[in-house]
Amino acid sequence: MADQFFGITDTGKQRSNNEDTFIAQWAAKNDMIIACVIDGVGGYSGGEVAAALARESFLNRINKAASGDVIPMLIESFNLANERILKDKQQADERRNMACVATLAMVDIEKNQFYYAHVGDTRLYLLRDQSLVKITQDHSFVGYLEDSQRLTEEAAMAHPKRNEINKALGFESDLASKTDYIETGQSPFLPGDMLLLCSDGLTDMVNKQDITDILTASMPLKEKCKLLVNAANQNGGRDNITAVLVQNDKASSQHEATMPSSSSKSKGEEAISSKEPDEVPMNFKRKTSVAIPVLTILMIVFLGSTVWFYLQGQKPRVIVEQTKVDSLIKKQRNAQEVKLQQAIDQLKGHILLLDTSYKSPIVISEAINISKDSLLIKAKREMVLQSDSAYTGPIFILSAKAKSLQLDSVAFRDCQTAVASRNQTVGLKNVRFYNCKTAVQNYIEVPEKKYINGKIMPLTLKADSLPVKIN
């Protein structure tokens, strides 16, 4: 029972202060585990204060001797924290912009349940059967795109607006009247399950698969938390990094396949056993008649087919249930954009020629990710790339690995952003834009509170009525 929870926070590689904080402890009545991650917003003089006020408010309310349902208590905790932050903002002008985002969970291991409340872009994950499921939604523009499968995880991690949030404690007053502002929920927490609460300093730096690999490794929770922080720092450590793990360390139950019964199982408790059904005892005496062996074979076939059909019938139920929780059904990309993304990913050199095998326009429903060091995309004749009517992200997005993208003889139509870069080189030759809100969005990152020296050079773009001759 000792290795049930652990929390850690780290400043990261580029920040001089830590605006994150966390809770990982037993509640005062010692019947539930409190797990929480809080990420402050508002700079050195504000973010840390907002996070500290929220943490204190949560603990005071949860540890207050009172009975009642858990979810209302969590909502009240968030309301109290919001009021304290708003009040403090009015008393100190230098903290007028402070706020915080938070994910708070109460875990009842004895009853195999957890409850949570959430505002912002900190996250809550559930690890079950080696699969990591994102429970909370990110209250941000980029988070919405990722959760709705408009952006891949990699594109979301590199998106220039990934840190812009829509909700936080300290943004608005009277949260009690805004019933949909605080996200809440509860779920079974089965033996062997694990919860991860973390700040975006982890998830912006480490992808889901790498996090899963660390969480499923055989080691204490403390070591897993350290590895998560190390992985984020190795990938750049651009923000503060905080992770809290809670584990239901009771022995996992193994369920064999049984015939359906009238009683229904609770959500998440259905399991498919890989074990074969127990052998049916056959107490027949050996006789010379062929009837008994034939009947025996028929009974075995009947029992085997019954179990097989039952197991086949069970599988879709489990898949559907996991899909409801996971919300990870991939939106089917059309053949043209799949072909374009695969051509870029599999390209051996640095020049991709868009020939007549691509049908114009290429409709984009998810950002085309550029991860090559340098790439020239050139069309034999003008090739149009057009956003799907429901897609609002960029057509091309340059990952941290890319250094330059050159575009020759392509056109962009009906898009919010044609190219999103992270201060990388973007070259345009005979490129046209039709009804595009932003042609090239260039996001420049600098270390916080450091002296910055340099120069932002003016763009050298020239508009021509006729195309430049293509060599």
Automatic annotation (TrEMBL):
Entry annotated with the keyword Transmembrane: yes
Comp. bias intervals (Basic and acidic residues): 266-278
Polar residues biased stretches: 250-265
Gene3D superfamilies per the UniProt record, alphabetical: PPM-type phosphatase domain (3.60.40.10)
Keyword list, A-Z: Membrane, Transmembrane, Transmembrane helix
Domain PPM-type phosphatase: 5-248
PROSITE patterns attached to this UniProt entry: PPM_2
Gene Ontology molecular functions: protein serine/threonine phosphatase activity
Region (Disordered): 250-280
A Pfam family reported for this protein in Swiss-Prot or TrEMBL: PP2C_2
InterPro entries: PP2C, PPM-type-like_dom_sf, PPM-type_phosphatase-like_dom
Record CDD domains: PP2Cc
Transmembrane segments: 290-311
Coiled-coil annotated spans: none
Entry-linked SMART domains: PP2C_SIG, PP2Cc
Protein name, UniProt field: SpoIIE family protein phosphatase
